[in-house]
Sequence to fold (1052 residues):
Amino acid sequence: ASFSHPALPFAVSGIGGEIRLDGADLQLGEIRGSLPEGTFTVTGRLPLGSLPAGIGTGAESMDLKLALRSAGTGNVAHLLPEPARSDLHFKADADLHLTGRIGSLSDLNFEGTVSGAGLKYADWTLEAAPFPVSKQDDLLSATGITFAGDGISVNGSGDLAIGGGVRRLRASIRGDVENRVLNSRVSGSEFGGRTTLDLSIDGPPSSPALSGEVKVAGGSVRIPERRLDLTGVSGNVRFAGSRASIELVGKLNGGETTMAGDAEMDGRRMASMVLDASFENCAVFYPEGLQGKMDGRVTFTRDSEAVYDLDGDLWLRDGLYRKNVSLGRQLLSGLAKKQEKAEAPVLADMRLNVRVSPVGSVRVKNDVADLRFEGDVTVRGTRGKPVLVGQIRTLPDGKFYFQGRRYAIAKGILSFEGDDQLDPRADVRATVDVKYTSPRNPYGSQTRQDPHKISVELLGKISDPTIHLMDDSPSPLSEVEIASLLLTGQVLGGGSTSSKEDYRSQMVRILGGSVGSTFLPVIGRKLGVDQFDIQPAYIANKTDQPTARAVIGKDLGGGFFFTYSPDLSNSQRYLWIIDYQLGHNVALRASRQDDASYLGRVSHNVGFNLFAGRHEQSVITMTGTPSFPDPHKEYIAEITVDGLKATNAGLALRQLTFRAGEELDYQRLYASQRKLYSLNVFRSVRVYAEPLPGRKGLVVVRVMLAEHNVYQAFYGLRYNTQGKIAGVENKQNPAGFDGELDVHNVNLFGKGIDAGFYTRQSVPERNYRLTMTLPYVFSHKFNTNVLLYRRNLTEEEATTLVTETRGASLQLEHRLAPGISLRYFSNYKRTRVTEKGATDHEPIDVVFSRFRLGTAVIGDFRDDPLDAKKGLFASATFEYQPRWLGSDLTLLKSFSQLSLYYTIFNKITFAVNNRVGVIDNFGGDVPPSDLFYSGGSVSVRSFDEDYLGPRDPFVPEQPWGGRAVIVYNQEIRFPIRALSKRIALKGVLFHDAGNIFREVSELRAFDVRRSAGVGLRLDTPFSLFRLDYAVTIDPRPEDNRDRWIFSLGQMF
Fold:
């Protein structure tokens, strides 16, 4: 049975038991039932006269015993304030004696004991000793309540008046709380000490008045990340009516600090607050590398509109910044993108007005600078988006170090102008004396040291500075020659203009980055900044179009590193990885894969050389003489190659795009360096030119190489959970333990051939692979990949299914001409499925064989693959599966794409993309994996991925695919606004059309589904980011009406 009544805040269900009518009484014999949370049992006498008027006389008193078991907050959750409903959990047993009448709550009385009470608030757990409770007329009372838990011991008592429609709560709370219980509630902080409570509560439950005090003794707060230690905190917070006063003293990083203020309370809510804090002689260790002493006075306020403000002054004394800055790492990393962390929501809107002033000057002394500066900066804006206003100036005799040289800082001013990027305006000038060897006369018979007094001037925003390079010597160098001299120690000769500009752009990047890395940490520039990358990814199986993954990495310290990577084009695909380095190349990994499976792995990487030194070669030297030298140009007189041990000399020399006796072209030096790296046999490659002593206009090109270990081995143990794709178990990635081994010879026969063996072994799976990658085939440049594999998978269900797969593949790629490449591929795959243990049917024993032959021609003549403005891209792929080569079916498949780009008025780009694909199965079936699919972010944008075209009528969420596909895309791309010299906002209007056809005979050029929309493009030096909004034209009931898409690069 069930029961509900307006007087009850909840319904009672599952009621069962025996009721006997004994004269004018109802005798209840163990009536049991269920509450929303917990159970109850009722026994005793219930006179009909105790029931409400209309049922009984309403004059007699009942005599019942009520037992509650595991009754919890779920019964009265609606009575709790909103924040407590999800965090507060209470359970208890109670044995109560009920008297009075049921007519109204005021007529019902009881007394008894509550036992086994437990209180859980968030992650705090408290238990209570048994305590008495009673209700007499309009007063509900509880006394002697004692809650105890880890670090908490609190007792209280009170009563609640509920008569006459007016509720009044009177209670007292006393006890001790160890502050360490806050550690789990405030991340990144460590609390200590003890807090004593002595409070009284009086008034309506919704807005009671507090009186009494909260005392703190020996309190401490430690924030390791900010190197802040607040210790010896003592004082109190006193409550009187609606007012609270605060008085605390302590030591902040060894210095004296006091806090005092008042707050106005509106019941349980703080209406306003003013808190003054002062500190003196506090040690400063943040940002990392900064040392000094800090004095200050700040005021923290909160008004009635819940607006927070922080105002005051900070004075830095004896400031010293010692953190080293690796400029060499900046040079190698190039334009590494950084993005500020999203500010924590707590007090993110707090308004700031705090002035930071050095007393005297602040010294920077590290591996790149030795200087002093003065000035002051005011922090304004909000905590979530702070801005800086002010100026700092370097004092005379400052020094700056770069590439082993000491620069004297003649002037250094950073002006902060209140922008929300914390990006100061710089006015910096430094000088350095440089000497280098140069020819003395046209005949090159002698050399001398020519001194050059170089000035480097940096002006404008640090993020995008203008750098001027000047030579004040009698024979001044050009700006490009100065840049090459400062970066390499040599002056560029007859190199190409573009190679010289590469040096200058590196100089701008390094010097601009150096100033930001040296000065900004002193004023907190790096607060809340972490590494954030967006990396391109290619979905080769269906679209061959670029999408992107965000990759967020965080060094957790102690050898742990965390990586999170979502697919920006598909929110269902994301992975996370936790790596732990044990040392000696041993690593632990836990990860979540794109198919929602989880993987744990322990692995060991080793590298070694067998027969070390056996193939070691001496330095190779080649010489040559220019035929008709131009006295204004430089020529290569000698080439030396050093560092070849296991690598065949002919393979290395084949990568060089220059010869002795030719004119020096730095672009060819760079191209040769890239080609040597691409062999994947060298861990470092350095190609550079230096003047040949005593020979004007002649240089020696040195090729310095260092090889990888020839043998690389990896072995590990993994555990994988069962993954799912679109809600279906991923049978290709079975759950369980497995071991893996991967051994490679990365330089077989010294020919740059990478040959490897890989195996993965588990209970359900046996996996073997032999791989080989060859850079050349019969002395011709073909990137060639060979694969042989075998896989056995056992699935245990009602019967045992064994799937054995064997196969081989070959792929060759050859560059026919600049922009044109040709690919050949073939693969053979034989799958046999056998069934064991079948008793009620003939066991399965089937074999599938596939043999594919294919070729692809690709022509890419776009000016920019990510954001083309002119040119074309064309590709054609053909695949043939013939029966006469062992395939179970005959199939011919082709897919072609053509993209054209036109720019008019130097601003507006019209882009067209057309794709068509057909399959001829010669009357046979086509496996679903070979069919075409379309729809999504790289085809017809308003449709979900692969959901363009026919669908299974019985499973609408399953696209059928088809044997023909056609897709048209048109875009008009136009500029909107230049946000800076390097960042621009652009717009796009687009129209997409396309369809999937079950049969080739059904293909019609204009039988298409269409979508249209608008988009934004953010063009940055790092990449182009795409945001599109697409709307379906003439949608059907099962179609999306619209769709948002975010990705990397233009769609085509």
Remarks:
- The radius of gyration is 39 Å.
- Helices lie at 82-87, 327-333, 479-488, 497-519, 649-654, 666-678.
- The first helix runs from residue 82 to 87.
